[in-house]
Design goal:
By secondary structure, the protein is of the alpha/beta class. It has 2 domains: 9-163, Rossmann fold (3-Layer(aba) Sandwich); 171-289, N-(1-d-carboxylethyl)-l-norvaline Dehydrogenase, domain 2. The chain has 14 helices and 8 strands. An 8-stranded mixed beta sheet has the order 3-2-1-4-5-6-7-8, sandwiched between helices. Helix 2 (43-48) links the parallel strand 2 (32-35) and strand 3 (51-52). Helix 9 (167-194) packs across helix 10 and helix 12 runs antiparallel to helix 13. The longest helix is centred in the middle third of the chain and has 28 residues, at 167-194. The radius of gyration is 23 Å and the shape is elongated. The protein binds ligand FVH. Ligand FVH is lined by residues 13-18, 36-38, 41, 69-72, 75, 78-79, 96-97, 122, 125-126.
Length: 292
């Protein structure tokens, strides 16, 4: 795609992710202006063809779409608040990882300043940007999404989740929750086999195969959760699950390791059994998270 088919884009923030995004935009022929708080992090992207701006305000003037890819919600406000006037009338895409309510707050802030706001959740690490497997979830202004869709698609698959600016972050954070609890489980498991001298590297391929096989049952779990009926189809009841989890905690204790990653789900199961739902399906554990 040639430059004439893309609107100019500004990238605020040249950390690992900002640099990957800017490089990929330049490669896709998008006229790209970049800025970073700490000078000197733009050498590679400037060599690739990006224009470096000395200040965030100057950078904003270079793009129709301004992408903020900063550390966190506070750094977004620290960067954008002083240049709200320059941003007025522009389109803003926040690709910083912010919690759903923070994304909604940012959308309100943008509306007050006459800025059209789109939020995004990046489901990729920097090395994946622009390659197969990179995916970015978007919500907020559909006008911004559609206007810049070709540029956004150069970064990874681009999916619009709706006009609620918190939705992309909600999906993003839900997926990250699944990821981190999986990693926590792996850390506990690796510590457990490690007590018998098994290196984590030897255990990892087997763990990956097992977790992948189990992940294929998620749609069945989801179907039961969505039905709200935890007694019609019971593959594994809560009493059985409690005894399995108690045994796993015992094994950790015997091996001299703690079982915090497992304790999260074990506590939910314990509470459901204590509340008299022992014959219900394991999937009923989600109700403990909802306070039921
Ligand atoms: N890296 C990853 O794998 C993940 C993948 C999923 C999405 N995340 C999120 O993307 C945001 C940026 O991540 P990053 O990898 O670029 O992060 P860093 O390399 O640590 O760079 C942080 C940039 O933020 C700038 N910055 C920090 N505080 C401020 C501030 N108060 N004012 C202005 N800029 C600030 C920092 O600038 P400097 O330290 O170089 O001056 C970097 O440009 C993030 O939300 C991830 O969760 C990435």
């Amino acid at each position: 795609m040639t430059n004439t088919q893309h609107h100019p884009v500004t990238v605020l923030g040249l950390g690992a992710m900002g640099r990957a995004l800017a490089q990929t935009l330049v490669k896709a022929g998008v006229p790209t202006t970049v800025w970073n708080r700490t000078p000197g992090r733009d050498a590679e992207v400037v060599a690739a063809g990006a224009v470096s701006a000395a200040t965030a305000g100057q950078a904003v003037r270079g793009g129709d779409l301004v992408i903020a890819v900063l550390l966190d919600h506070a750094s977004v406000h620290q960067t954008l608040d002083p240049i709200a006037a320059e941003l007025s009338g522009k389109q803003l895409l926040n690709l910083t990882s912010t919690a759903p309510e923070q994304s909604r707050e940012l959308a309100e802030w943008a509306a007050v300043h006459g800025i059209d706001f789109l939020d995004g959740g990046i489901m990729a690490v920097p090395s994946m940007i622009g390659a197969d497997g990179s995916s970015i979830l978007y919500s907020g202004s559909e006008t911004v999404f559609q206007a810049h869709r070709p540029a956004l698609e150069s970064l990874g698959s681009a999916e619009f989740f709706g006009t609620d600016p918190g939705l992309a972050a909600l999906w993003d954070f839900a997926l990250l929750t699944s990821m981190y609890t999986m990693f926590g489980g792996f850390f506990q498991a690796a510590a457990l086999v490690g007590t018998a001298g098994v290196p984590a590297a030897e255990f990892a391929p087997r763990a990956a195969a097992w977790v992948s096989a189990m992940a294929s049952s998620l749609p069945r779990y989801a179907r039961i959760i969505d039905s709200g009926d935890y007694t019609g189809e019971v593959f594994q009841d809560l009493v059985f699950t409690k005894s399995a989890l108690d045994a796993l905690r015992q094994a950790a204790s015997d091996a001299g390791i703690t079982a915090e990653p497992l304790s999260g789900i074990a506590d939910l199961v314990d509470r459901q059994v204590a509340a008299g739902h022992g014959a219900a399906a394991f999937e009923r554990s989600i109700e403990a998270l909802r306070g039921h």
